[in-house]
What does this fold into?
Amino acid sequence: MTNPMRNVTPGGSSGGAATLALIVSFTGILLLTQSLFIVPAGQVAVVTTLGKVSGGARRPGLNFKIPFAQSTYPFNVQTQVRPEEFESLTKDLQVISATATVKYALKPSEAGRVFRTISYNDREIYNRIIKPSLLKALKSVFSKYELVTIASSWSDISTIVERTVAEEISQFDYVDIQGLDLTGLEIAEEYRAAIEQKQIAEQQLLKAQTEVKIAEQEAKRYDTLNRSLDNQVLYKLFLDKWDGQTQVVPSLPGDGGNNTPVIVGGRRN
It folds into this structure.
């Protein structure tokens, strides 16, 4: 009979053990790479477990997740700058055009809520959160003012718009508005000329009013000075300036109480 042990290849058991070790090592490395992930600076990561948001947003650095069961979605939390061209009607139904440049940043703590209710990524934050609120606030503010006021008080209007946009977006509490700049105001040329003429007229009126006030103050000052110059004051002023040589004759009795001296001649030689 043939001995079956003779067909066993020497070293076969050691080869199987090496293969098993290789498989175990590969599996371990795979699990490790699937368990660890890095969140770059300026981002946070939303982690989902079987499609459901799990825990808070992960901060920058090395993080751990359950292999195959959990997935990660990055969200940028750095300041974003987006210009938005818009048109709006004024209170007197005139069309204006301008550019609103908004600076905003996603709140890191709100990344999970954005993922659940708005979008799986941060690219939709502007279109779905910022832009609708921005346009609503712009039209709300400009509809309250006439074109002349908007053009002549552009800086003040910009401040009001910035505050209104921040208040509108704060209702959702997803992002921080860090600034808003309004530039490039465009209006019809005929209205621009009318506005410039009105501004010139207002400046001329202000100048005239200022000159009138100055004249009134001067008149009051001279009136006050005139009332204070009685005979005694005049005599005192005379004595302060008298050179001690000019001939002075006292007033005569019976002149109505006027004791002012009379100058009758020049210096004596």
In short: The radius of gyration is 44 Å. The beta strands are 36-39, 43-49, 52-53, 61-64, 70-76, 80-89, 95-106, 175-186, 248-249, 262-263.
